[in-house]
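User: What would this chain look like folded?
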Amino acid sequence: MPLHKSAEKRLRQSDRKNARNRARKKELKVLVKNMQKLVDAGAPKPEVEVAYRSAVQKLDRLGVKNYIHANKASRKKSQLARILNEYGKAE
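Assistant: Here's the prediction, encoded as structure tokens.
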């Protein structure tokens, strides 16, 4: 446990930031999984495109605000785009 008042405050702050970061990353994982579930279930392409757009928006936002690395956001967007394009060709 922290011995100084400032260390206690830093602990509180880091706990809050950690919870916020985990929540944002969890939202992203849920959006990506939702898109993958739609693809696996054979949903209509417009539904998959809506899920793709929402996932890409979240990726962009988290990448710009440094919740995830910008290159990771770009890589994930590319992977999702590839899935979407292959899904369109499969039908």
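The radius of gyration is 18 Å. If you want, I can go into more detail on any region.
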